[in-house]
Amino acid sequence: MKMHAYLMFDGQCEAAFNRYAEIFGGKLEMMRYADSPEDMEVPAEYQQRVMHVCLTVGEQLLMASDNLPQYPYEGIKGCSVSLQVDNVPEAERLYEALSAGGSVQMELQATFWATRFAMLTDRFGVSWMINCMVDTQEG
Q1: PANTHER family, alphabetically (predicted)?
Q2: Tell me, what's the pLDDT at 139?
Q3: End-to-end CA distance of the chain, in Å?
């Protein structure tokens, strides 16, 4: 069994995942509601929203979609995407890229459990934790 995060957005899914593909690399696959093989009776203003997107990085998947009007959007709450990184320079790179335009709850810093740890919310409202347990490369 594998577990993967699935995020919900309110019209920002495409922009968020294009940004994540820049940051993490990997393969991005996206389908809009307008591209569905079934008639989903989606309002015209929602046709270009993302029905499903998948960013594949190695064996990891991050998936998402935009909401539809019958499902009121309340933001992404109560969870964080946790990134486990191998070295301080990578932790710093991810921290800078993901925090740009967002808000930081805990600066990237050494803790009693990690070489570096940070908590932030990116400009799309996604909460991230960056955790570097073992520093294999001094930074």
Answers
A1: PROTEIN YJDN, PROTEIN YJDN-RELATED
A2: 47
A3: 35
Q: Give me the average pLDDT of each 10-residue run along the chain (139 residues).
A: 93 98 98 87 91 96 94 91 96 98 98 96 98 68
Amino acid at 87: N
- pLDDT of amino acid 102: 98
- Distance, CA of 117 to CA of 98 (rounded, Å): 14
- Residues with Cβ < 8 Å from 62, sequence gap 6 or more? 4, 5, 7, 17, 20, 54, 55, 81
Question: How far apart are alpha carbons 16 and 9 in whole angstroms?
Answer: 9
Q: Count Cβ neighbours within 10 Å for each residue of 78-99 and write b for 16 or more, e otherwise.
A: eebbebebebbebbbebbeebb
Q: What are phi and psi of 23, to 5 degrees?
A: -75, -50
Domains in the chain: ranges and CATH: 5-66 (3.10.180.10), 81-132 (3.30.720.110)
Are 82 and 132 a contacting pair, CB within 8 Å? no
Q: What are phi and psi of 102, to 5 degrees?
A: -110, -155
At 66-92, the pLDDT tens digits run: 998 888 889 999 999 999 999 999 999
